[in-house]
Amino acid sequence: MNRRVEWGLLAGRLILGVIMFAHGIQKLAGMDNTVALFEKIGQPAWLAYFTAIVEAAGGAALILGVFVVPSAIILGLTMLGAIVLAKLQMGLIGGFEFPLSLLGLSIILAVTGSRKFSIAEIITNEKS
After folding, report:
1. How confident is the model over 28-87, as pLDDT tens digits?
2. What are the residue boundaries of the structural domains of the chain, listed by start?
3. Quick one: which of 12, 52, 17, 6 has its CA closest to 32?
4. pLDDT(123) > 60
5. What angle do CA 8, 12, 17 make, to 5 degrees?
6. Which of 11, 24, 20, 18 is CA-nearest to residue 109?
7. Number of Cα atoms under 13 Å in the Cβ half of residue 67
8. pTM metric for this prediction
9. Are 25 and 56 contacting, i.e. CB atoms less than 8 angstroms apart?
């Protein structure tokens, strides 16, 4: 793949990874508040736990560069859920614009992957 494209994908992978990891850790650290927020918008408690774990683990996987495509797919589905279940009724501006941006990054990484400075690349190169 083109070197400039790889650098762009690395930037996207790290940005999405850091954002999702931070949001997941924030949810996990204040799980009582997270569950209360989910219940306030009519969602079950188990979805709060699931979302927090997916965001933290998926974000960490992207940062490390392991399971990039499956992580991006799952994080994208999580953002689609956030848009449909919580943000859509708020409109684009001040509503679902941020999760839509994260969904866009997720789609790009799900389609292309990102191997630059990834653990997956290191492992593959050692086997060669």
Report:
1. 999 999 999 999 999 999 999 999 999 999 999 999 999 999 999 999 999 999 999 999
2. 3-127
3. 52
4. yes
5. 150
6. 11
7. 11
8. 0.93
9. yes
